[in-house]
């Protein structure tokens, strides 16, 4: 369990209208598969003189970022090469994911809580649409999400707020009554910039880095008691505001 930052900010959202989710590292622990896919691709092209990338390099330069930005970072002088490299890398990732993808612990409990309360929901991701829809399908959440917003569909992807602002627009909900679940600095930054509290998951990215993006709460997974204390407070305030027990 991680240190609470400001869980009270979630109860200030009452009446809660919607919950938005990132996908990679937030619905499923897919970062290791992306890491292995990059390692496999880098080995093929002799990147970094054949020395494998470290997890530190991956977290700092790749995790949570949009593919176009990653391609430009890796191949700053050859845009076409960056595009092709990332397309090939995603094929490797999808091959791995079909065999190995698993939901974050407690996700089923949280999605049931959301459905039982009739809240709106959308997935908001920098992943390519083919990846996003495949992972949502493998996790059996295709009927759960009303919309899947892709960074490439927006003027600017995360860490800019546009993808989350588009989700609010599509769902016709207010930022003052919506929270976000994210696992990367890029994603948390986007959510905070969009004006919403973000529940950050320490799935793979270091806690001290996530804190720099100012999440409202940091949790290990969706079974974390801190999350459920915050949700119970939302239920309590919702009951009080409606005059029910």
Structure commentary:
Helix content is about 50%, strand content about 10%. By secondary structure, it is of the alpha/beta class. It folds into two domains: about 10-30 and about 100-240, Rossmann fold, CATH 3.40.50; about 30-100. It is elongated, with a radius of gyration of 18 Å.
Task: Provide a short characterization of the protein structure.
With 245 residues, the chain is of the alpha/beta class.
Primary descriptors:
alpha/beta; disordered N terminus; metal-binding; six-stranded parallel sheet; 2 domains; 245 residues; elongated; magnesium; Rossmann fold; HAD-like_sf
Supply the number of helical segments. 11
How do the helices and strands follow one another from N- to C-terminus?
HEHHHHHEHEHEHEHEH
How much of the sequence is in beta strands?
A: 5-15%
CATH topology of the largest domain: Rossmann fold
DSSP E strands, number: 6
> By CATH's scheme, which homologous superfamily of the largest domain applies?
HAD superfamily/HAD-like
Count of distinct structural domains = 2
Based on the structure, what is the oligomeric state of the protein chains? Answer: single chain
